[in-house]
Amino acid sequence: MTLAPTDRTEGIWPIDPDPAITNLSARQLWSFAEDGARSVETAGARLSAEDARLPFLGIRRDARGRAYPAAFAFCPETGVGLPPPCAPSDEPETLEIDPDRSEEIALTEGVPFLFHAGRPDSPYLFQENLGALEWWDPAGRAWIAMGRLPPVGLPAWSHALAATPDGLAFATGDALVVVPLPQLGPELTRSEIGPPGLRFLGAPAWMPGELVAPALREGRLVLCRLPMRGGMPCADPTLDTLGAADGAAFARPVANRLGDRVWPGTTGFLSCPAGLEGARLQPWPEGFEPVLAQAPYRDGSEVFHQLGMREGRYHYAALDRTGALHRLNGPHLAAGTVSYSGSERFSPPWAEPAEALTLGAYGGSLLVPLLSLPRDAVLLAVRLDGGLGDFIRGRRLRRPVTGYVLHHAHGAGLRRLPVSLEICAIDDAAAFLRDGALHLYSRAERRCHRLPLRAR
Asked: What integer best gives the mean pLDDT of the chain?
């Protein structure tokens, strides 16, 4: 739909939303007066033109901030082109962080998991211990309660939540909980799928047309495959038996660029190819004990390698049919296709160092990767008084320690960012990119820092 500047918009405009822009599929009835939109009715909800939820519909705004349907390519009053509907910005190749501009966002009480999901992409906060789900209102600068969900029921290192443009999904132990996003309320729409006799052993993974998760049934490991459409289950799950469970539990699945998923676990790893054919459970090499609190390293062939111990030494074990072991000289913490150990960067971890870093004031600190890009990494420098091995394995400290955020441009050394994070465990801190900014947050201190990227 394209309007000329002389066209009048007063009245009711029915708009069928574009599924590439918003997950809210109901027809939108926009009410216009001479000075612009007054309200929108959709799916039984009536939103004023100032409603903070209006961007969920997928909208455009003019230079004065007035809202228009996504179908309007031009401002009807002036004929000036309208910017495209809000969409997540592309991930930058390098980080150009503006250290002089930052803002702080307080997180609400609980054990927070901060994520962005849905279509349009928006920030959300889930309290894993309470089940409370909230969304961020950027205009009012406040977290808005959406409702209560079941609390997460898996070990902390399993990282049981999976967020995508379709919404949020997680496992509670006896059910998969699926929440399509965004939602207008007032009630929180969700689906809980828990076939009798099934106990989930790890976080789900979103795959094309399905939600997939490992589970236990009658002592056997099964792959639960839940057909999905529009962010919600559309049929009963199917269960593919894979073999004996033997006390298995799984960490968060990782995905390579081919679309394959792998769940590292206590007794072995579960591989699920992109086509969902040939899923298998493979035991760890004899004597290998995985460190599941650490994310796997990914090599140039799209094969993951899990950190672990064997015969008192750190090793990486390949998450493929070979199960190849690579001995290390010490603990390595992976950041995508690189790893850090001591004051050095490696790629691959079992080769000679790719770069020696000057830590300066942070000498002796453990470098914990928070975010990895092809040519950059964001690290947290943490100084510990003993207990390094336990900390790497995910054990919580009795008292919080201060971690200093460093930006590492590969080959160009380290630069301190004006942010520090208090943590009690190695997975308390996290980072992600959204809306042209780097977001850093700590679950322990319930605080998020937003650092804008420089315009390029």
From this structure: 90
CATH number of the domain residue 218 falls in: 2.120.10.30
pLDDT at 394 over 80: yes
Query: Would the pTM of this model clear 0.85, i.e. be above it?
Result: yes
User: Half-sphere exposure of residue 332, counting CA atoms within 13 Å on the CB side?
Assistant: 32
Number of domains making up the chain: 4
Q: How many CB atoms lie within 10 A of CB 75?
A: 21
pLDDT of residue 456: 54
What pLDDT was estimated at residue 5? 45
- Regarding whether 322 and 413 lie in a shared domain, the answer is no
From residue 2, alpha-carbon distances to 19, 33, 49, 80, 82 in Å are: 19, 18, 21, 11, 11
Segment 355-363 mean pLDDT = 93
**Which pLDDT tens digit goes with each residue over 302-316?**
999 999 999 999 999
**Is residue 127 in a domain?**
no
Exposed, middle or buried: residue 441 (CB in 10 Å: 0-12, 13-18, 19+)?
buried
Last residue of a domain, one of 52, 87, 122: 87
Helical residues (DSSP H) of 34-117, grouped into ranges: none
For 92, what's the count of Cα atoms within 13 Å in the CB-facing half-sphere? 20
Q: Is residue 451 part of a domain?
A: yes
Separation CA 446–CA 156 (nearest Å): 17
**Which residue in this structure is represented by tokens 């179908």?**
71
Contacting residues for 262 by C-beta, under 8 A, at least 6 apart: 253, 254, 255, 269, 270, 271, 272, 296, 304, 319
Range of the domain at 319: 286-356
